[in-house]
Amino acid sequence: MAGLQRIPRDPGSAHNATQLLATYQLTSLERQLVNAYQHHFPLSPTPYADIANEFGVSEALVMKILAALQERGVISRIGPVLPPRRVGVSTLAAMAIPEAALESVAAYISSLREVNHNYEREDHFNLWFVITAADDAQLAERLQCISAKTGFAIMSLPLVEQYHIDLGFPLWC
């Protein structure tokens, strides 16, 4: 399913994630790029050139590899992860979608700029996503629009207490 990550009830450990990712047939350079830039992506006017210089390859090759990894689903996005409520507002949202409609609803939600990730869970509430907006009113309006367009209710689970969970871990060690 394009844009939809499947997450089982018990996603397991980083070791299991490493085993799953090992099923991708990646070159040494692709593995190094994924490992090196889960954190500390260069904040410069020329980040891809900076990465290319570090690895001794061309900027065009780095950009081509990252685009291909994204297209293959190895990486979902390249972008900042900002602390909650630092810029605008966000909420975790969950929907209960019948299997027959799941792919089309997930594709629609994944197409929205304000959705930064979207995944399936094996549960009654089987489609989960994080959505952002400029303010609470806009967030409520976006959730209402999604519900109206899809025909399914949305359970909004706004942040109550913030915890930092670092989801970066070494791959292919």
Written overview of the protein:
With 173 residues, this protein is of the alpha+beta class. The longest helix has 15 residues, at 136-150. Helix 3 packs across helix 4. A 5-stranded mixed sheet has the order 1-3-4-2-5. 38% of the residues lie in helices and 16% in strands. It is built from 6 helices and 5 strands. The protein folds into 2 domains: 13-71; 89-157, Alpha-Beta Plaits. It has helices at 14-21, 28-36, 47-55, 59-71, 99-110, 136-150, and strands spanning 5-7, 89-95, 115-121, 127-133, 155-157.
Compact overview of the structure:
The chain is α+β, with helices and mostly antiparallel strands and 173 residues long. The chain has helices at 14-21, 28-36, 47-55, 59-71, 99-110, 136-150, and strands at 5-7, 89-95, 115-121, 127-133, 155-157.
Distance between the termini: 28 Å
Gross geometry: globular
Q: Kindly report the CATH topology of the largest domain.
A: Alpha-Beta Plaits
SSE class? alpha+beta
Strand order of the largest sheet: 1-3-4-2-5
Q: Taking Cα atoms only, what radius of gyration do you get, to the nearest Å?
A: 18 Å
SSE layout and pairings?
Blueprint: E1 5-7, H1 14-21, H2 28-36, H3 47-55, H4 59-71, E2 89-95, H5 99-110, E3 115-121, E4 127-133, H6 136-150, E5 155-157
Parallel strand pairs: 1-3
Antiparallel strand pairs: 2-4, 2-5, 3-4
Features:
single chain; 173 residues; alpha+beta; Alpha-Beta Plaits; 2 domains; five-stranded mixed sheet; globular; disordered N terminus
